[in-house]
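A reminder from the course coordinator: this example appears on the midterm review sheet, so study it carefully.

Given structure:
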């Protein structure tokens, strides 16, 4: 079965966790070299590989005399500045020995939230792949602040998977896969080989803990798998410290946990709206407006808006919430906050008269809107 699932894979994102390539002492150079060698073997098979690598902070904190996880953003930034150069050097040396090249790509959430910068990042990575160069992607920890953080590299790897339209996401972790309960606390924990859909019950099994070296735990990996699934991509979580794990995966060995792609996937643009573009405010939608959007598959008209919250400009992403405050959709709005306040609750035919101009009849067009609530994902 696993061989059949992998038969279509031509482009793969490999996310390497901090716990895989570092330990309490810092960067595990032999482990970096071992995984790099396996990636080169995939390149030999004709696959395109994008690596999302954690470990910069763990690699650099020792030189600053920091024990454990850095407690402040400046400490983390300083450790990352030192550690990132070490990691890239290790990847570069192993790849060069196999006659391959790597390139460093550092991103912040702002880079993927802004549509123009998103497309620029995509063009850069795609050009590197065309030239046979393997991108090594990481969050730009040296400049990032809380407002523009991805949160963890599991999230980043899912967004990169959508960015490059990869066929598969492989998350190399320090556990063998997804269990029905924490194997560190429950000896009877059972590995689940296949997950059809990341439901709230599945998320509940993942917990919300993280390790001492990284920011993510199983919960963040489940979130990443869910986002990748909505791109129509399967995710495999495996133990990155298992010998030759990438080679064994593509030999068809039944290892780790495979998360199936969603049957109805989001378009690349809608995935960007749902996960990459950061919402700036929210609209309160009346029952009729919600029904038109959710059940009717319609655009959002000004008549359906009964309240606003937060500040936003034309072209920003906003949350669509019902009267109880529950989010059910997100979209890119065609009017600013000031304009929306004037036209909300009105008919589309009145927009030009109220504002003196009109961009469009819809406040949010259907192509710029994606469902996010329990009603299901919008696969248009």
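Designed residues:
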């Amino acid at each position: 079965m696993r061989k059949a699932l992998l038969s279509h894979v031509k482009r793969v994102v490999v996310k390497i966790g901090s716990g895989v390539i570092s330990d309490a002492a810092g960067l595990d150079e032999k482990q970096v070299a071992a995984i790099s060698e396996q990636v080169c073997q995939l390149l030999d098979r004709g696959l395109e590989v994008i690596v999302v690598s954690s470990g910069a902070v763990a690699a650099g904190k020792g030189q600053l005399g920091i024990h454990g996880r850095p407690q402040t953003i400046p400490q983390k930034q300083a450790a990352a500045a030192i550690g990132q150069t070490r990691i890239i050097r290790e990847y570069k040396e192993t790849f060069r020995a196999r006659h391959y090249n790597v390139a460093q790509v550092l991103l912040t959430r702002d880079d993927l939230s802004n549509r123009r910068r998103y497309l620029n990042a995509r063009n850069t990575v795609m050009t590197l792949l065309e030239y046979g160069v393997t991108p090594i992607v990481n969050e730009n920890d040296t400049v990032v602040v809380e407002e523009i953080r991805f949160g963890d590299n599991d999230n980043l790897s899912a967004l990169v998977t959508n960015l490059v339209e990869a066929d598969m996401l492989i998350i190399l972790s320090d556990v063998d896969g997804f269990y029905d309960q924490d194997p560190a606390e429950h000896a009877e924990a059972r590995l689940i080989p296949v997950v059809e859909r990341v439901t709230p019950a599945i998320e509940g099994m993942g917990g919300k803990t993280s390790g001492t070296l990284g920011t993510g735990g199983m919960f963040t990996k489940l979130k990443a798998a869910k986002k990748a699934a909505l791109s129509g991509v399967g995710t495999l979580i495996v133990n990155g410290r298992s010998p030759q794990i990438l080679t064994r995966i593509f030999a068809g060995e039944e290892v780790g946990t495979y998360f199936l792609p969603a049957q109805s996937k989001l378009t690349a643009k809608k995935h960007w709206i749902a996960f990459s573009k950061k919402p700036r405010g929210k609209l309160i939608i009346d029952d009729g407006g919600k029904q038109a959007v959710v059940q009717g598959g319609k655009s959002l008209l000004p008549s359906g808006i009964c309240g606003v919250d937060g500040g936003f400009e034309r072209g920003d992403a906003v949350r669509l919430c019902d009267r109880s405050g529950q989010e059910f959709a997100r979209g890119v709005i065609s009017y600013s906050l000031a304009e929306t306040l004037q036209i909300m609750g009105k008919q589309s035919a009145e927009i030009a008269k109220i504002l003196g101009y009109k961009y469009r009849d819809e406040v949010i067009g259907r192509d710029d809107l994606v469902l996010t609530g329990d009603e299901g994902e919008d696969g248009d």
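The first helix runs from residue 2 to 6. The chain is about 35% helix and 20% strand.
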